[in-house]
Each structure stands twice: as structure tokens, then as C-alpha cells.
Design goal:
The protein is α/β, with parallel strands linked by helices. It is 35% helix and 20% strand. A 6-stranded mixed beta sheet has the order 2-1-3-5-6-4, with helices on both faces. The chain has a 6-stranded parallel beta sheet with strand order 9-8-7-10-11-12, with helices on both faces. The longest helix is centred in the C-terminal third of the chain and has 16 residues. It starts with 7 loop residues before the first strand and ends with a helix. Bound molecules: 2'-monophosphoadenosine-5'-diphosphate. 2'-monophosphoadenosine-5'-diphosphate binds next to helix 6.
Length: 288
């Protein structure tokens, strides 16, 4: 328990920062649980990142969330990394340790798995997962799927060199067989997939659609997209139309914030329909 009457302060650092949903999530939970805490959004340029992170202990901050474009650099700055941040090569949560050192964690993979756990044939079959994309989000997703004991993970990205770099750095940390396929083969690799994940920006409002035919995908396969604007991306709609189980990206956003809230304020918060609705309303309000 935190001492009562003592305000717990935490932040999110990014550049720009206006798009971040972290303040909304953390303030929702602070109110929900009646906690004496505050959460601030800090616009931190890349040049100032190290200085701002190092200032956290003296400003009595419990820690900070880290978002675009600082996730990789933060992994270089902090004093220690947890296993997932080390394997992924990126940090989205920094906590201040009692001795003032900084610990970096990556909760994106955790959020991704919590969002899809229990959906589709999750408990019956974890043989083969397919991941589109090879950016920072893809790294977290691939690592997390490997932790969940998928036997093989096939990764496809427009720029194949990035896929190869991803597998080369993550393969030593995981048992799952990571395999690379050409972006052009994306319709053909689907036939024995248990899970299909889009981590690219394709299908997001203002971006081109993901051009794909999911004809060969087993109807039991879970299809999920980390894009949440719109909630039902064209990929998810196509999957729903043929009866596949689907899960949208909003749950990942909510679940990745839970370990941060627990670290900052000492309470493991719940992801509830009320939070989801509030977030949907907020996104609709600001996303026009
Ligand atoms: P993040 O770190 O959030 O994953 P990112 O690094 O910008 O974001 O990655 C965006 C992903 O969308 C990349 O995999 C990118 O492919 P490239 O590595 O080839 O750039 C993918 N992407 C973006 N636009 C694309 C397009 N028109 N066709 C195919 N893939 C695209």
C-alpha cells in the first residue's frame, strides 16, 4: 500500500505527445480506484530524453511510460532491463528503483497476449502464428507469441531485410522457430495458421488498406489487428465475414498500461467494458 496523503506522480514521455492515450487510461483508473496520484504528459525531444529520464528520481516520479519515438533509445539509457525489454530491444515503461536507478520494461507483448488470451482456439492449438510487419510492435508481438509456446512464427514484411534483422535478434532468446516469408506470399502462407496478426499501419485511418485474400486461412484461426482506428479494420471485417474469431487492437492498448499503473500506484487495474467505452468515446472525439 502507498502511504495515504502522499501523491504518486508518473508520466508519459514522447514526441509529439498529444496522440498518447496513456493520460486518459491512467486518469480513468486513478478516479476509478480513488487514488491520490497524478499523471502528466511530457513532450520530450530526442536530445532531452536522457536528461529527462535521469531527472525522474529527483522529481520524485515513480516512473514514466515511454512512447514514439523513444522506445529503442530508452533501452540504451536505463540501468537495467527486464527479460522482455532486453529481447525486444525496446522499453515502454521505466520505473524508479528505491536506490534511484532506472529499470526498463516492455509491456507491449504482455498487452497483446492479454488481449487475445482465451480467444479462438487459443487453448487447443498454438502451432503456427503469422505476423505481418517488422517494426517495434512486431518485435514485441513475436517475442510474446514465442513466450506463449507457439511452435513456429512466420513473419512477413514489405522490407524483407527488416524481417531478417528481427528474427536474427529475437531467435536466440526463444524456442519457437522464427521463419521469414516474402511479403508477396502473404495469401499463401495462411493455410495452417492458428493466429494471424497485423502489426503494420495498413488498414489504419489515413493509410492504405492491407491488400490480402484470407481464403486459405482455417476458419478457426484467430485474426487480430493492433490497429484500433478504425476498430473494425478491413482485415478484421473480412475475417468476421467468413466466421473467423477476431479481436480488435483496443484491448492491447488497455492491457499494456496495466503493469505501468500497478508499478506507479500499487493497484492492478481492471480492463472493463466501461473503460473500453470511455476510450472509444475519447478516440471518436479526438480522431476526426
Ligand atoms: P511500429 O514500430 O509501430 O511497428 P513502424 O516501424 O513504422 O511502426 O512499422 C510500420 C510497419 O508497417 C512496417 O512493417 C512497414 O513496412 P516496412 O518495414 O517495409 O516499411 C509496414 N508498412 C507501412 N506501409 C506499408 C505499405 N504500404 N505496404 C506494406 N507495408 C507497409
Amino acid at each position: 500500500m502507498m502511504p495515504s496523503g502522499h501523491i504518486q506522480i508518473a508520466a508519459v514521455m514522447g514526441h509529439p505527445i498529444a496522440h498518447s492515450r496513456s493520460p486518459f487510461l491512467h486518469k480513468f483508473w486513478l478516479k476509478e480506484y480513488g487514488l491520490n496520484g497524478s499523471f502528466v504528459a511530457l513532450d520530450v525531444t530526442p536530445e532531452n530524453l536522457q536528461k529527462e529520464l535521469r531527472a525522474l528520481p529527483s522529481k520524485a516520479f515513480r516512473g514514466t511510460c515511454v512512447t514514439i519515438p523513444h522506445k529503442e533509445t530508452t533501452a540504451q539509457i536505463v540501468d537495467e532491463l527486464d527479460e522482455s525489454a532486453h529481447a525486444i530491444g525496446a522499453v515502454n515503461l521505466v520505473t524508479v528503483l528505491p536506490d534511484g536507478r532506472l529499470r526498463g520494461q516492455n509491456t507491449d507483448g504482455y498487452g497483446f497476449i492479454e488481449n487475445i488470451r482465451g480467444h479462438g482456439t487459443w487453448e487447443q492449438s498454438r502451432k503456427h502464428a503469422i505476423v505481418f510487419g517488422a517494426g517495434g510492435a512486431a518485435r514485441a508481438v513475436v517475442y510474446a507469441l514465442a513466450q506463449e509456446k507457439f511452435e513456429a512464427i512466420t513473419i512477413l514484411n514489405r522490407t524483407r531485410a527488416k524481417t531478417e534483422a528481427l528474427t536474427a535478434s529475437i531467435q536466440p532468446a526463444v524456442k519457437a522457430k522464427l521463419q521469414v516469408a516474402d511479403w508477396a506470399a502473404r495469401n499463401d502462407v495462411l493455410k495452417d495458421a492458428d493466429v494471424l496478426v497485423n502489426t503494420t499501419s495498413l488498414g489504419m485511418d489515413g493509410h492504405p488498406p492491407l491488400e490480402i485474400s484470407i481464403e486459405q486461412l482455417p476458419s478457426s484461426a484467430l485474426v487480430t489487428d493492433i490497429v484500433y482506428t478504425p476498430l473494425a479494420t478491413p482485415l478484421l471485417k473480412a475475417a468476421m465475414d467468413r466466421g473467423n474469431p477476431t479481436q480488435d487492437g483496443l484491448g492491447m492498448l488497455m492491457h499494456q498500461a496495466r503493469p505501468a499503473f500497478k508499478a506507479f500506484y500499487g493497484q492492478d487495474p481492471d480492463v472493463t467494458p466501461a473503460l473500453r467505452q470511455a476510450l472509444v468515446d475519447d478516440i471518436q472525439k479526438t480522431h476526426t
